[in-house]
Amino acid sequence: MPDAQAQALAELVARRRQVVEMIVMEGNRRRCASNPKVHADIDAVVAVLRAQLAKLDGDIGGVVRSSPLWRVTEDLLRSVPGIGSVTARTLIAELPELGQLDRRKLAALVGVAPINRDSGQQRGHRAIAGGRTSLRNALFMATLVAVRRNTVLKAHYDALVARGRPKKVAIIACIRRLLGILNAIVRTKTPWLPA
Questions:
Q1: Mean per-residue pLDDT for 54-71?
Q2: CA 71/CA 128 separation, integer angstroms
Q3: Any residues with CB less than 8 A from the CB of 100 and at least 6 apart, and which?
Q4: Where are the alpha helices (H) located in 33-119, listed in sequence order?
């Protein structure tokens, strides 16, 4: 069981994700509405949600900075191109196993491990399934940035696409590679060294 501080951080990160989802939903509702009064009402709700999001970001940052171990882990994670504060804090809160398990087990926990869809003589294609969806979503967005800014992941992505892999499959493979890199960085406590 996580201690009280880890549970508080996980709840704050989950609440932040919920507030972001509500901001997106309100934005979608605003695009569908044509009445100016409805627009004003939605804008007021979005302003409140954005203020709450800023407060949550401050609270999450305060909790992470209050723990020396989390502060060091966040600095290590943020040393990797493509990993920002939101992704680093999400990893700290939702993947405490980072740095303790091997890359295959971590990929299964996150839900980016390829799973066979075989039955008897039939051989299905491999697909990802299960895992921690919110963490997978955060890593997906971080990987989209990383394949542009991180030379290691960019080379891996380009090689996969050149071999004919679909772009989404290449992104998932890059998530697994990024997860392995982050795991090694946290385990060895060595920041990212640019090539």
A1: 94
A2: 32
A3: 187
A4: 36-66, 68-78, 85-94, 103-110
3-state helix, strand, coil in the chain (%, to 5): 70, 5, 25
Alpha-carbon torsion (154, 156, 159, 161), positive or negative: negative
Mean pLDDT, range 22-41, rounded to an integer = 95
For residues 54 and 32, give the distance between their C-alpha atoms in angstroms, rounded to a whole number: 26
CB atoms within 10 A of CB 35: 8
Is-contact 30 42, C-beta < 8 A? yes
Which residue matches tokens 């091997």? Answer: 102
Contact by Cβ (8 Å): 101, 76: no
pLDDT digits (tens, 9 = 90+) for 78-117: 999 999 999 999 999 999 999 999 989 999 999 998 877 7
Angstrom distance (rounded) from CA 38 to CA 31: 11
123 strand-pairing partners: 118
